[in-house]
Design brief:
- The chain is an alpha/beta fold and 303 residues long.
- The protein folds into 3 domains: 78 residues, Winged helix-like DNA-binding domain superfamily/Winged helix DNA-binding domain (Arc Repressor Mutant, subunit A), CATH 1.10.10; 86 residues, D-Maltodextrin-Binding Protein, domain 2, CATH 3.40.190.10; 104 residues, D-Maltodextrin-Binding Protein, domain 2.
- It contains 11 helices and 11 strands.
- 34% of the residues are buried.
Amino acid sequence: MGDQISDGLDGLPLWRSFLAVHRSGSVSAAARVLGVAQPTVTAHLQTLERLEGEALFVRTARGMLPTARADQLAARLAEPFDRLAEVLGGEATSPVEHRIRIGGAAEFTASVVMPALAQAIAGGLRVHVTTGLADDLLDDAREGRLDLVISSVRPRGRSLPAVGLIDEEFVLVASPGLELDPAEVAERGPDALRAYPLLAYAQDVPILRRYWRHVFDMRLDREPALIAPDLRALAAAAVAGAGVTVLPTYLIRAELADGRLRMLVATDDPPINTLFLVRRPGAPAEASRIVEDALRQGVAGWD
């Protein structure tokens, strides 16, 4: 019998290279952090992938995209490696402690997510943001390209756990310059709006159509005068006096407060849309917690 003990510690250099690539997103950046040649890092990854029996990264033009298995391994290894580095008096595998990929609607991301995460980013969190439609972003999460998604669609099945984040409330608004009387709108309903252009998010007017059905209890039968797939653009057009639109209150709090926009219908039962925080299994646990805590604090004053 030999005296060699197989405790896995001989593989530490391999896993150190793996963590550096996972955190930095590229072989070249990992090599710089570790102070070794790029071929060394590449060889370490190839050895690990042979041992694991599967690819750990997808090589793309934008860098090394970790697989779901790679994310699971990184979540288990990161804290022990960083603690070991501290004990030995060195530095963590990477100067970046937490890295996460987030998806969400462009308007919500710009207006809510970025301000909420500003302090965490300044403190070392590294965030890669992708904006788009909910279904596309959820597909990216399923395929391992995103870690967290703020989604207006609750994913089906159990592959992507989702928790409610906040209910966004929608209101009918216009510029005071249009001289629309909310009392008249309350009395006559949509007939009071016939002479005013409608500003819509899409050709099928999903937000306006839902508002008409929920508040006025009737079908919307008008064509929009403006179609812009960005709620911020609709808000800007409404402030400038282009017409009437429906927007989430979080996006136009300042405009409502200073009078640039006027709410045309007061109701105790406005249309709402629940936003879900969707986390991919295997997503970085600590970074996910930091983001969720920051987002919940950021929307705490909505109620």
